[in-house]
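Input structure tokens:
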């Protein structure tokens, strides 16, 4: 379910850079205000939904590791669907009001300045938007580091427990191999989020809080890297499914 939700959010978000590409080919925004408003909605809400689904995956894994009995008893497809729905709803609660106000009152001249949201006219919303992106990325990285430490401690404990017990050691080694590839994908996802999202977050933070505009080519590279993450995610998850042919619960993603 998390895989499907993330794939849908990625697919929706990709319409935004595609519209930017068409605009750049023509040298200006030529698709009119309604599509410009749609573009801004996809950019703001789509990116926020991606991040919130990534947070849901981290929360799911933390739940599976720290409360495995509760996880097995209560987590199912319905719960996964509710978690994903709550994540997307939260993204809308943060981003949608600003998009609506921008479309009604604060929209810029897209023929002259291009199609984008004018965050400077909605200071409070821009704070929430930046906090959503920055804090959720921090949570994903901190949660991943915590899970790595927990995994390392568990492996050390198992090594001590199974020393001298060949059958137990063999069973635990097989279990470790089954879960290693999904965990590898989780690792690559967390690292890729850090690599691809950090330039964009730092760029907008610099513009917002220092008042200094960064070079256009630097900003373009940062936004391009952010868009690449949406392409990178589905390939990672597809690799995991094809490589392991196991349920995602082994990796803590649930059913």
């Amino acid at each position: 379910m998390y895989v499907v939700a993330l794939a849908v959010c990625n697919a929706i978000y990709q319409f935004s850079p595609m519209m930017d590409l068409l605009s750049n080919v023509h040298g200006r925004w030529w698709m009119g205000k309604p599509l410009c408003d749609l573009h801004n909605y996809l950019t703001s809400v789509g990116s926020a939904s991606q991040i919130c689904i990534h947070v849901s995956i981290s929360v799911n894994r933390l739940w599976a590791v720290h409360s495995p009995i509760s996880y097995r008893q209560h987590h199912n497809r319905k719960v996964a669907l509710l978690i994903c729905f709550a994540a997307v709803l939260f993204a809308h609660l943060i981003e949608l009001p600003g998009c609506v106000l921008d479309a009604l009152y604060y929209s810029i001249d897209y023929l002259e300045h291009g199609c984008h949201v004018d965050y400077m006219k909605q200071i409070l919303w821009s704070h929430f938007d930046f906090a959503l992106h920055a804090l959720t990325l921090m949570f994903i990285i901190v949660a991943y580091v915590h899970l790595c430490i927990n995994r390392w401690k568990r492996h050390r404990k198992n090594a001590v427990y199974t020393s001298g017990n060949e059958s137990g050691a063999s069973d635990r080694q097989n279990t470790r191999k089954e879960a290693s590839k999904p965990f590898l994908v989780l690792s690559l996802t967390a690292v890729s989020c850090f690599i691809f999202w950090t330039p964009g977050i730092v760029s907008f933070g610099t513009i917002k809080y220092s008042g200094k505009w960064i070079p256009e080519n630097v900003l373009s590279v940062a936004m391009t890297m952010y868009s690449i993450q949406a392409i990178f995610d589905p390939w990672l998850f597809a690799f995991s499914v094809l490589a392991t042919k196991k349920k995602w619960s082994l990796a803590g993603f649930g059913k």
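The chain has one domain: 2-251. The radius of gyration is 21 Å.
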